[in-house]
Amino acid sequence: MKTLDVIVHAISPAGTTGTSRSYELRAAAGSTLSSFEAGAHNDVHLGPSLVRRYSLCNSPQDKGRYLIRVRRDDAGRGGSRALHRDLTVGGRLRISPPRNHFPLVAAERHVLVAGGIVTPLLSTAEAPAARGASFVLHHYTSGAAGAPLLERLRTSAFAERTGIHHSDQGDSVRAGLPAEPLVPEADTAVHVCGPDGSMTHVVTEATAAGRQPGQLHTERFAPAAPPAAGDEGATEFTVRIARTGIGYPVPADCTIADGLTAPGVEVELSCEQGICDACPTPGLDGEPDHRDEVQTPDERAAGDRITICCSRARTPELLLGL
Ligand code: FES
Question: Three-class SS of residue 55?
């Protein structure tokens, strides 16, 4: 897994709640920042098994630095708390080069819906705005105080095409969506990011209104829900290692990595959430049940790499190139 070292050049508060900060990252000596496209993110390596994904919220034209925004989640698993607590100006970080699982797809018209977090769609909105393309952005927040990038949206070049909705004023995703995601026009792409529940709601409503699956694009920042006994397809399967020929049982509520590590098979893992790209493993036979956020739809369809930390199998046996 390729990584590079960066220096924290500046830290600034984002919003007024004190829970969000912007971090400006610049190349450390010997490193070079590669360019990126709207929708890209970095994986930030905070320690063993502690990798977090943060969207780049500066413009792709803004060379020489990466800007990420981190909201401290006191109920989370520790990544954002560690960043807020330990990172100071001048500190070093190890990050992945920018990767993009949420590019702006080609379409006549774009509808962007951001629930809770607008960061992944900020630079995405700037691209169609800059070329005068047709688009609208709807940003859903819990309330004005919890929306750190509100001022940037209000003063942006696309402010007139931005709708801001605060759920503490009764204007939430569930209270009612605006017309744009629901009107099934041809040649329109709908990009949705935010909490799982919000995204699922938008996608469900848009699909019910006649949008085709190929028009709906989402990005998740949390792992897919772990398998649970009783889920559709949640049955035990066997994962077999090509080098030794030995098969290991993977119980209905476990991942491939669980099935391998329990009997002592060593595999390379890092985030263990399907977001860092440390564990994709060659798949030689059997049908994977991909549950990661690492691979693109095309890579998943190819089926020759499996993110074992979170994925499972749809067939009774899966043969891995280990
Ligand atoms: S360990 Fe990070 S994607 Fe599997």
Answer: strand
The two three-digit tokens of residue 278, written as one number: 């440390």
φ and ψ at residue 11, rounded to 5 degrees: -130, 130
Compute φ and ψ for 3, nearest 5 degrees: -135, 165
Please check whether residue 297 lies inside any domain of the structure. Answer: yes
Q: Nearest residue CA, atom 3 of ligand 1?
A: 274
Question: Dihedral angle at the C-alpha atoms of 1, 52, 266, 289, nearest 10 degrees?
Answer: -90
Residues 263, 297 share a domain? yes
One domain for residues 256 and 207:
no
Q: Average pLDDT across each block of 10 residues of the chain; the chain has 322 residues. List them in order.
A: 91 80 93 90 82 87 91 81 92 91 87 82 80 87 75 86 90 90 90 85 92 86 62 84 96 92 88 81 93 80 89 95 94
**301, 245: one domain:** yes
- Examine the domain organization and report whether 311 and 289 are in the same domain: yes
CB of 272 within 6 A of ligand 1: the answer is: yes
Residue 19, domain extent: 4-95
| DSSP symbol at 53 | E
pLDDT of residue 307: 93
Residues 71 and 149 in one domain: no
Q: Is 306 in the pocket of ligand 1 (CB under 6 A)?
A: no
Does ligand 1 have an atom closer than 6 angstroms to the CB of 294?
yes
- Write down which residue in 174, 191, 219 finishes a domain: 219
Q: How many folded domains does the chain comprise? A: 3
C-beta of 309 in contact with ligand 1 (< 6 A) = yes
| Full-model pTM | 0.73
Q: If you measure from the C-alpha of residue 269 to the centroid of ligand 1, how many angstroms do you get, rounded to a whole number?
A: 6
Q: How far is the CA of 192 from the centre of ligand 1 (A)?
A: 23
Paired tokens of 192: 């949705």
Specify if 230 maps to a domain.
no
Ligand 1 center from residue 138 Cα (angstroms): 32
